[in-house]
Amino acid sequence: MNFILTDAAGNNSSAFTTAISQASDPIDANSPVVTSVTVPANMTYGTGQNLDFTVIFNSNVNVTGTPVLNITIGTTARQATYQSGTGSSALVFRYTVQAGDFDNDGIAVNSLVDGGGSIADLAGNTANLTLNSVGVTTGVLVDSGNPTVTSIVRQTPTNAVTNANFLVYRVTFSEEVRNVNVGGADFEVSNTTASIIVASVSTTAYDVTISGGDLTNLDATVTLSFRSTQDITDVSGNALINVTPTGTNESAYIVDNTAPTVVSFTRKTPATQLTNADAITFLATFSEDVQNVDLGDFEASGPTGASITVTPLTASTYDVQISGGDMAIINGTIGLNLRATASITDEAGKVLTVAEPGTDETYTLDNSSPGTVSFTRGNPTDAITSADQVTFRVIYDSQVANVDAADFEVTGTT
Asked: For 262-276, what is each residue's pLDDT tens digit?
């Protein structure tokens, strides 16, 4: 190549020739370009997990400032920030998933910007930041939401009160979860020494079975709860934090292995023991809530042909009325008894123990009119007297009431 040098005054030098080698004296006027973008692996990313992208140029580049890679998660614009790679052809950008991020059909990679700095090759040519050959992101999903407990329901048995030796709860989560320990280490139960076994029903539902231990003879409320050490997560690694069900919460069984008893038969109507009422009512009180209580469970002692009516007041108290038959004419003691065939049970199905209650009141029915047994001199006792006042003693054959002066009259004096 021939060169002519000129000084400041415009004088030209003699022409000369020199050799320039492109290998040893390169001339570069081309801007580097992006040849491809490597995207994160296909999976669902949860809170705190990183989405790493690699932007590859056709030549080595130097980075100043903090370039960013614009991406979209769901409908939200996010930025993956520059991490490393200056001096090479591969620049690494990272976005860390935060709470609230969600994308179930794949994130989008949008554009590369220099963020106020620069990306240039070693000759200083500014890079063309247009993205080419971006990897497919339809399988790059984001779920930053924590799983929740949708419900805890009594599966077997379904009744809250039971004497069953196996208790099965169904625990349902809001999404597919991982790390549910089949040995029951994620759960605990109160008031029993029973063991826990967990079986998967689906990816979101698990049956938790309580059995053995002291369940056979237990009388207590058994409640299922999560251990503080449980490490259940969703498929994205988001931890189960709130363990209170958002829906149905049937976390307790009332285990009842003691048969009910009748505590008392007490007079209710009338309240007095002595009566001539044609209908009397006893209050029957049981040791716990019972069911299947009807007139066939009781019998009356004393009257003949009387009928029985049962009226529930609460699940453990009942009015039992005895009426009719020879109640209008009978004299004697009227009582209430349980029949030997009584079919009363508690809510757990335990059959009532038929026995006399601790308090067993009766009525004394008196339908006879009272008679006068005697009038005797009280004071003075002598038949002949000059006293200005005399007292007679009247004796009846039964207890009487409403006795006053209007019931008597005297003869021989005004």
From this structure: 999 999 999 999 999
